[in-house]
Design goal:
The protein has 310 residues and is mainly α. 75% of the residues lie in helices and 0% in strands. Helix 1 packs antiparallel against helix 2, helix 2 crosses helix 11 and helix 7 crosses helix 10. It is globular. The two termini are 30 Å apart.
């Protein structure tokens, strides 16, 4: 992850467009390998650490979700750092200087923290016989299908909203500068972070819990997005309507975190045996990225039409 992050930071120094694209894809794939390992390890180690500590056994969901909330914290810190650097570089107007923008990207601070995982009493001592996976797939295959599909649906909504966030704010505020639009992005990240924390606070409560949180979260995201679509013309007809539109969008970010984005990550770390937990949690996360790809394709078709080059 750290090596990939360093390569991504220095990507703007590549001047040739073709070389830039190749280098960026390589760095992204290299970074993705690290993330693909970090995701399941962070979830599984948080779950197992909670289970091994008597004081945390009844707060396992909270501990895992709080670990996941660092994703939201990273988004907020990222926007905040860029805003500060843009202000210091004087990049607050409509036109951005390419050199200053490149320097802002390079100056962003990338930090990878590691935490030692606790020893698990029943490890396989690095032995993974092939029949273990056959047995586990036979017994837990249905669970894997559910965690994969749930994560794919969650990321379809999550990345569908995030990928086109800049265009959303541009449509609402066409005269706003990039600096101003980034402020709205930072606010949205802050509201999403509140969703992570709300999920951590309620996920272990018997009267709410994982199942209800995921169901309510999916329902609210769908209802809020449908309200935006059904009321689009009315919501974009006045200044008050724009504010209502923005409030609906922000609420969808909150309920995405206070719902499927957190629960899919948590449940996939709880429903599989320890010996294959990280593998199956990582496989579920990979299907989540497929949902993100589908969102990118579908939103592009909706905007530009089938067969368009975009």
């Amino acid at each position: 992850m750290l090596s990939g992050a360093v390569m991504l930071v220095f990507t703007p120094l590549v001047h040739s467009p073709a070389a830039y694209l190749r280098f960026f894809i390589f760095a992204q794939v290299f970074y993705g390998v690290g993330v693909g390992g970090e995701y399941p390890m962070a979830a599984s180690s948080a779950a197992e650490r909670s289970q091994s500590d008597p004081a945390l056994r009844q707060r396992r969901g909270e501990q895992v979700v709080l670990t996941f909330s660092q994703q939201g914290m990273g988004s907020l810190v990222n926007c905040s750092v860029i805003l500060i650097l843009m202000a210091l570089a004087g990049q607050t107007g409509q036109a951005l200087d390419p050199t200053a923008s490149r320097n802002i990207i390079i100056l962003q601070v990338w930090k990878a923290e590691r935490e030692d995982a606790v020893d698990i009493a029943h490890t396989m001592e690095n032995k993974r016989p092939h029949h273990l996976y056959r047995t586990v797939l036979r017994e837990f295959g249905p669970r894997l299908v559910v965690t994969c599909l749930a994560w794919m649906a969650a990321n379809f909504a999550f990345y569908g909203a995030m990928l086109f966030q800049a265009e959303f704010f541009t449509a609402l505020y066409p005269t706003a500068t990039p600096f101003q639009r980034l402020q709205w992005t930072a606010l949205n990240s802050g509201i999403a972070l509140l969703g992570y924390w709300a999920a951590a606070a309620l996920v272990d409560k018997p009267w709410y819990g994982r199942r209800k949180m995921q169901a309510v979260g999916f329902f609210m995201v769908a209802a809020l997005c449908m309200a935006c679509g059904a009321g689009y013309h009315a919501l974009t007809a006045s200044t008050a309507g724009y504010h209502a539109f923005q409030a609906l969008y922000f609420l969808s970010s909150f309920f995405n975190q206070f719902g499927p984005n957190c629960t899919t990550w948590l449940v996939a770390a709880e429903v599989f045996p320890t010996d294959v937990r990280t593998t199956f949690q990582g496989a579920s996360a990979a299907w989540g990225k497929i949902g993100a790809i589908i969102a990118d394709i579908v939103f592009g078709i909706v905007r530009w039409g089938p067969g368009a080059t975009y």
